[in-house]
Each structure stands twice: as structure tokens, then as C-alpha cells.
Amino acid sequence: MAYLTLNRAKLKENFEFLKKTFTDNDVTWGVVSKLLCGNRLFLQELINLGVKEVHDSRISNLAMVKSLKPEIQTVYIKPVSKRNIGKMVQFADVSLNSELETIRWISQEAVEQGKKHKIIIMVETGDLREGVMGEQLVEFYSQIFQLPSIEVIGLGTNLNCLNGVMPSTDKLIQLSLYKQIIELKFNKKIPWVSAGTSVTIPLMLTQQLPKGINHFRVGETLYFGLDLFEEKVIEGMNGDVFELHAEIIEMQEKPLLPVGNLAANPQGETLEIDESLYGKSSFRAIIDIGLLDVDPKYLIPSDEKYEILGGSSDMLIINLGENPNNYKVGDTLNFDMKYMGALSLLNSNYIDKKVIERLD
């Protein structure tokens, strides 16, 4: 059985690095836990770090967090559907919103549950995902402030999540100005300008973050240590908190090219023949994980001597070349992964999850 490991020591190092960075910049932050897909074991590891605020896009995951530590502030980070508003208000202390009618429904539900629900209004800054258009913002806020059981605690934005628009100092200054306009217009205090996600961290590290930005929502950089501007691991952080371990279930020396008439495989792919490979062979390993669990393009072999050739629903095929490490059936191949690879694996019920200590 393939399994995924979370390295406790490396996760703690990443957390402490970010904690110090945010403290030094007088910025508050919450951890985005959606990558963990509600896994109780891994969520407990987050809580053990001393996390005070958890963000997620699945209500069931926030419910799990509340079951583990009720006093943690939970934040729902996507527009809520009407039928899920009751559960959202029950398990989320804060939510990100951009639809007036939805906020009215949240207000009604919060009144019924006897709660004060906090909201952050999302502002469109160019990536064209969720967010109120800037020219509509004042009128939008004027109606929100009238609603019972709603406390407006901030405005925020998302960048790079859909069309790849990167954060910039200019965009973030614009968001800070929106906050000032709202506060002056309505004589209300807006505590948070929540414009920071993992992709914004490089601006903070290079002292380009405007002073008005005071709240971050961080997932990917915590788990993968990545500078998403440079696509490289930040010095002082770890890129291998997660690792996939998959067992070799067949090992054979086979031709590099298939034999017979070729048609599309079940994934709709048709192999293009490289005639220079005729007559050549290599050692090929089959491992016990497949496309049902993860897209191979998101996996990074820990040993650069082997490559992923492809796979089917339940197996991946690995080219080991001349097999210089003498791998055999029953041995384990290890893989690092990109964010979307880890997300798929964590969402798979067929992959075991384990916590380990530092191995190096």
C-alpha cells in the first residue's frame, strides 16, 4: 500500500520561520488547512504547533478543527452556497464574502443561531475570481453595515488563483486605500486588510509589502516552503514536508517501445513513437499507486535517475534505466510532490497517511 508522510519536524521549522517573519512585519495570519482534506491526524499536527486561526474551503474540515480545539478561530474562505449557510455559521467564526444576498442570508442564520458572524468583504483586483468591483464597494458596504449579527472585520482579495495575476505593491496599496475610504465614509473601524496569501510572501520578504496590509492566509508556503515568484524553496524553509512512498509490485527489463497496433489508451492518449528507441530496453518498475490517486505530472522522483513513464488507474510505470540502485520487487520508491499532487493524495482514501520525525 502506498502511503504519504508528513514530517513533523520540518513542518514545525516552516511554521516557526513564518511566525517570526509575520511577527517581525507586524502582520497577523491564519493557516489554510484545505490541503489536509480534513485528515484528523494531520490537523492535530497543525494545532500542536500553536495555530490560532485556521482557514478552509470545506465546512466539514472546519467542523473537524472545532472538534479538536473549539477555541481556534475558523475562517471559511470561499463564497458559501445557500443550502450550506446553516452549517457554515455553526462551524466558521469568519467567512469571506462578495454577494450581498448571501450576506443577508448569513445575517438571518446568525440571528437564529444567536451568534455574531464576522465577515471579510472580498474585492476584485484583477484576477477575476471572487470579489466586489471597486466602484461598487462603498454602496456594498453601506448595506452590509445595516445587517444584524454581522460584524465586518476586513476587506480582502485573492490574486494568482485563477488567471495567474501576481500581487504587486500598487494593487495592495489600492486595497489599503479602499479600507481608508470605507472607514472615513462610515466612521467604522476595519481591522483587517487580508490581501496576503502564499504568493504575496515574497513581497514581504523583500520589504515591498505596503504597511496597510496586516493579515495573511497561508497554506502552500507553509507546507512546501515555496517562493511562488521564483518557484524555489525559500532559504531557511523545507520543501519536503510531505513525501510519497510507493512499493514496487513488478520489476522487469522490457523494451522501451510497445509492440502491436497502437490506439488511444483509456486516458485518450496516443503514443508517439521515437524510432531511435527500437531495439532498446530498460528496467521498468510498476508501483502501487495510479491515476485514481494522483496525476503523475505533480510527482517529483526523489532519485533523479528514474522517470515516470505513465500509468493507469491503479498503477504507475517507472523507467529505472539500467537500475543502478538495484531496486527489486518489494522496495519502495519515494517522491516529492507539487501542491496539486499532495492535494490529490490527501483526498484519496486509498493512500495511508503517517506522521514521521526528521529523517535527515
Briefly, what CATH class of the largest domain?
Alpha Beta
Give, in order, the helices and strands: EHEHEHEHEHEHEHEHEHEEEEEEEEHE
Structural class: alpha/beta
Q: What quaternary form is this?
A: single chain
What is the second-level CATH architecture of the largest domain?
Alpha-Beta Barrel
Specify the biggest β-sheet. Answer: 8 strands, mixed
Q: Which term fits the overall shape?
A: elongated
Number of domains: 2
First-residue to last-residue Cα separation:
24 Å
Q: Please state the average pLDDT score.
A: 92
C-alpha-based Rg, rounded? 24 Å
Identify the CATH homologous superfamily of the largest domain: Alanine racemase
Percent strand equals: 25-35%
List the total number of helices: 10
InterPro entries: Ala_racemase, Ala_racemase_N, PLP-binding_barrel
GO molecular function: alanine racemase activity; pyridoxal phosphate binding
Keywords: Isomerase, Pyridoxal phosphate
Cofactor: pyridoxal 5'-phosphate
